Structure to design on (85 residues):
């Protein structure tokens, strides 16, 4: 079942690393909201080693999109490149 809760961020993906955004994130502390909590998690996934690095967590009500500068800095510090538009 694909409920569209995990989406790749295409401009930051290549063969060695994939950057994803988790949109539907349930939180027990936010009772009654279920997966519509507004919490977003950005993480890097390394398919060859199955390693996951968390890059950012934010609340959609305070910030509309992920921090592209933070993602670029993460990729720069980890020796990876990205495809800008």
């Amino acid at each position: 079942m694909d409920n569209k809760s995990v989406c790749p961020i295409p401009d930051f993906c290549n063969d060695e690393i994939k950057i994803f955004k988790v949109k539907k994130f349930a939180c027990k502390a936010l009772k009654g909201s279920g997966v519509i909590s507004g919490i977003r998690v950005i993480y890097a996934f390394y398919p060859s080693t199955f390693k996951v690095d968390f890059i950012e967590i934010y609340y959609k009500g305070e910030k509309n999109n992920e921090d592209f500068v933070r993602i670029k800095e993460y990729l720069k510090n980890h020796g990876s490149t990205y495809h800008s538009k």
About this structure: The chain has a mean pLDDT of 82. Residues 6-77 form one domain. The two ends are 31 Å apart (CA to CA).
